Give the backbone structure.
Amino acid sequence: MNTAILKRPRGRPTNFDHEEALEKALQVFWAHGYEGASMSELTEALGINKPSIYAAFGNKEELFRKALARYTTGPAAFVGEAMKEPSARLVVEKFLMRAVDFFSDKSTPSGCMIVQGALTCGQSSSAIQQELITYRNGIETMLTKRFELAKTQSDLPPNLNTKQLAKYIATIHQGMSVQATSGATREELIAIVEIALKNLPI
Amino acid sequence: MNTAILKRPRGRPTNFDHEEALEKALQVFWAHGYEGASMSELTEALGINKPSIYAAFGNKEELFRKALARYTTGPAAFVGEAMKEPSARLVVEKFLMRAVDFFSDKSTPSGCMIVQGALTCGQSSSAIQQELITYRNGIETMLTKRFELAKTQSDLPPNLNTKQLAKYIATIHQGMSVQATSGATREELIAIVEIALKNLPI
DNA sequence: CAATTTATTTACCATATGGTACAATAATAA
DNA sequence: TTATTATTGTACCATATGGTAAATAAATTG
């Protein structure tokens, strides 16, 4: 089954599972943000010593990037999934509703890591801050492209400004992330989405 | 005119203007958040040495609280002002439109300090984090109360859930704060508000 | 077996953090 | 003038930060 142990590499074997460790790092960064997560908290959470972390993942920045990649392909993968819905309207519904599930999942930190990982920070973290902005823009771009596709399918009117609509949806998503971190309940988040959907311009 | 110098206090006079210093501290905290603003950056920005800051304002937490108070009664006072508009609809319009002006003002940091001052942080800042949540809830409560008043004036239907509506408006506001910090232009923010207003349930 | 390779542990590094002791300074009060 | 009071500047403190050197341990190769 596990092909990884069929042919062991040369030296002393690694004593921890990289994916498991990355998952734990993700939880810490997700909960406290890039700056708010200290290396000592991370070492404690991962259960391995610092030199092992640095050997396996590079440095704090790299560890964050790898945790972030895991985040987007794991818990936050629903964003890409939502784009596959058959109509623009359903895409928005799915995106926002799944975001509510996501934000109110009590087994994970509240809020979106891409929104809150480094919104404000010291100068030393500006690289990460900028990368998260790029990720946020990426979500907007996904929405825009999906709306453009809907236009070609006569699912949306040709005069509709897809970029603006995407930005509006992203704004609600980001606002809900803040709400979730502020303690908003699942029911409250659903109410927000219902208001938003009931009054959607599409 | 200046009554403060008519009767000087006993010892060596203070060498800096407290309000000016607080204003500079506000700018730093606003731009970098509570944790992201270091005492050394603050001392440099205020142009006074650390012992003077501590003598005048207590400690970093107290300095932040005083800067935050200045924020709410100064640049962010428009929130309370907006509540005075004659109808619920106009309250929301004014609140969101003035927020756009506020967020896109190039002479101040982008985004809202109450939203971004300590969204995520290390454990040592959880007190400030909690206080900012309380401030955010306060804005929602202002909106709720204003909508309740509108009900008594037959300005809003009696069956309308004012808390939910307030939370929805607050969500858009918070989302726009994230957008502003991510580089959204004034025009883009206006477009967001226009979509939101065009589809308002009131 | 020894040699080699890699990972772990321990202990440490330079720097930055929030915060302060203490002496010097500048004002007022007597 | 002298005493008193309060603020300033310098120099410092304990601790935490991200990060690493060096020795040790555990595996494979020959």
In short: Residues 1-5 of chain A have pLDDT under 50 and may be disordered. Residues 9-15, 48-49, 51-52, 55-56 of chain A lie near DNA strand C (CB under 10 Å from a C1').
